[in-house]
């Protein structure tokens, strides 16, 4: 069993990349929160595009943006760190500029803007994880990754609240929000680049003992596609069920979303640290079991009808959020632990591909299953997540096994 890491705020900031990098993360998240939740609304309100055309353009942007990940992985494996993070932010500056330059009624410039925004959004998680893995190690790295997620969710939440308050201004307010978002991305990129962090993967093998070939991680990547669905439950599945099946007030959806954000911000680091006494693979499997149980809880809640259904969904959403927190605090940390330093970038890029794919297909899968009833939706999600948790718990990556064999052989010689 691993030794439990203690929370020391200054050490946590240092392990996360330092004060300037923390400010860059906060500014970037604030800017993202100002625009990303309202990008569809921008296309419909400001550019006068149809909702379907706007949605298709945004989906294409996300999916095509995933194609950049192999190049990002190779760039990281050449030692780049803060430069890649800054580049992911600068690409989004270009996306915002294209968005603001798009004439009303023109969908292709909007699609190009969505593509550049998608590239930046897909590249950032892998680049950020590689940077944190360079300045911290072991369980301290897990806590630092969790701290980064908590900070990012706080910035996203504050940005979304500010944007919501400004929406009464109509199309002009959305254009102003886009401009502020572009400036925030630019400032964040400058701060991230100023960290000047570069790695020498060949000279710094993993401190977790994985010094062999790149792990294939097939079981982990396949399971992660299903796990990633939990990140969209609060934004897609629950509002769909609450509004269309339980005929509840939209206030319930908003309350669940706010509660999710608050729980992630307050519990992400403490829960990650608390569970650091167990192996990462065990904790990730536990997250899957908890998520699967919460999906069955949603199924039971929807059977209670209009009066009690909505409150029951809100209660179960707490368990779902805790499962999400455990998953998010463990999955990326597991990849950084099992991947040798010289292929860390490619391993993180493959992991982000699986996450991005899961997030991209989850709206279509969720709405498709929901059309066949609550049992089809929550039963399928629960079964798939339990299967994924089993795969995570029982499968070991070939590179990890070989590394263990080599360590035992050296110990016995």
From TrEMBL:
GO molecular-function term, one example from the UniProt record: transmembrane transporter activity
Query: What Pfam families does the entry give?
Result: MFS_1
Q: Which protein is depicted?
A: MFS transporter
Compartment(s) where it occurs, according to its Swiss-Prot or TrEMBL record? Cell membrane
- Keywords in alphabetical order: Cell membrane, Membrane, Transmembrane, Transmembrane helix, Transport
Question: Which residues constitute the signal peptide according to the record?
Answer: none
GO annotation, cellular component aspect: plasma membrane
Q: Which InterPro entries match?
A: MFS, MFS_trans_sf, MFS_Transporters
Q: Which membrane topology describes this protein?
A: Multi-pass membrane protein
Q: Which domain of life is it from?
A: Bacteria
Q: Which residues cross the membrane?
A: 21-43, 49-72, 84-104, 110-133, 154-171, 177-197, 218-242, 254-276, 283-305, 325-344, 351-369
